[in-house]
Write a structure and sequence with these properties.
EC number: 2.7.4.6
Subunit structure: Homotetramer.
Strand content: 15-25%
Structural class: alpha+beta
Keywords: ATP-binding, Cytoplasm, Kinase, Magnesium, Metal-binding, Nucleotide metabolism, Nucleotide-binding, Phosphoprotein, Transferase
Domain Nucleoside diphosphate kinase-like: 3-140
Helix content: 25-40%
Cofactor: Mg(2+)
Bound molecules: ribavirin triphosphate, magnesium ion
Shape: globular
Order of helices and strands: EHHEHHEHHEH
Length: 145
């Protein structure tokens, strides 16, 4: 399988719960390498632009409010099949439906405050990575673990 990059976000609920390290550990343990990381406070415009595909959805305004309610951790994760692998590690959108051992099952509060975001396709991953990270801020390195 090809090496891919995907955008991961630890949402405000994850940052507030003090589990930044635990979430990143799950990615590292399962072969997803953080190649860019930044703590950020999203503006309303940034959050609206990022979630523009959901503009018509009933939960859009709440989602933007939530995503701007506190700092988030923006990350680029790299690895074999990183897009699908990240979604697997995250679990289903609704933590009540997420599989055991997934981040959302173990840490999320509800369908909105669900701790992590992950790009949902390789095409969207490219768009989402470049939305937050210029190429010069992404740094490849080898693991010796
Ligand atoms: P994400 O984009 O954040 O990785 O999550 P996802 O693909 O699993 O879910 P998506 O359908 O793209 O929804 C984006 C985010 O909107 C919030 N949401 N709230 N109140 C609701 O019914 C509802 N549904 C979705 C969640 O924060 C979800 O992750
Ligand atoms: Mg999504």
């Amino acid at each position: 399988m090809a090496i891919e990059r995907t955008l991961s976000i630890i949402k405000p609920d994850g940052v507030e719960k003090g589990i930044i390290g635990k979430v990143i550990a799950r990615f590292e343990e399962k072969g997803l390498k953080p190649v860019a990381i930044r703590l950020a406070q999203l503006s309303k415009a940034e959050a609206e632009g990022f979630y523009a595909v959901h503009k018509a959805r009933p939960f859009f305004a709440d989602l933007v409010k939530f995503m701007t309610s506190g700092p988030v951790v923006l990350m680029v994760l790299e690895g074999e099949g990183a897009v699908a692998k990240n979604r697997e590690i995250m679990g289903a959108t609704d933590p009540a439906k997420a599989a055991p051992g997934t981040i959302r099952k173990d840490f999320a509060t509800n369908i909105e405050k669900n701790t992590v975001h992950g790009s949902d396709s390789p095409e969207n991953a490219k768009i989402e990575v470049s939305y937050f990270f210029p190429e010069v801020q992404i740094h490849a390195y080898e693991w010796k673990k």
